[in-house]
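Risk register update: the risk of archive-format incompatibility is retired. Evidence:
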Amino acid sequence: MSVILNLGTTGIFTCGKHESIMSDKSPELIIKRRNLPHWTLEGAIYFVTFRLRVGVLSWPEQWIAFNHIIQGDGRFHILIAAVVMPDHVHLIFKPLKAFSLSRIMKGIKGVSARLVNKSRNSRGPLWQDESYDRIMRNVDELYQKIGYMYYNPVRAELVENPDEYPFWYFDEDWVDKNHI
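Archived output:
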C-alpha cells in the first residue's frame, strides 16, 4: 500500500521555534507499509535502525559492516552518523538525489551481508528483512538521535567512554557546514 501526500510550502517539518532541516520547499511524502510504516521524502534526513536475524557480529565482522557503510558516503548518501553494534546498526544519512532510501538500504544490507558471509565462509540472510526508518523532523530531533547513537555502546556496556568505541562515525564538518 502506498499513499502520496503533497505537503505544500508549509510542510510538517517545522515545530514551533524548532528549525526545519528539510531542503525542499514542496516535497511529496510517500507512505508505504510492510510490517512497519516507511515514509520517504526527497531531501529528508533519515534515522535508520536494522538488526541481525540471529546472533552477534564479531569485531572483525563489525569492521566489515562499518567500513562498507562509510564507503557509501558521498557515493549514495551523505552519512551524518553511524554506529555498528554487535547485533544492530543505527544510521543517520541523507540520500543523494539519484538514490532512494530503499535502494540505499538494500545496498548497505545486501553487500555487508555478502562480505560478512564471505568472511564466515557461509551463505544466507544476515539482517532482518525490514529496517526501522524515521524522517528527522527538526534539528532538536537530529541531535537527540545522534546523542542516542553516541551513547549506545556505553549503555550496552561495551565501553566506558563513547569515544573509545571504534565503530562510531560522526561527520562534524557536515553539521558545521550546514549550520546545524
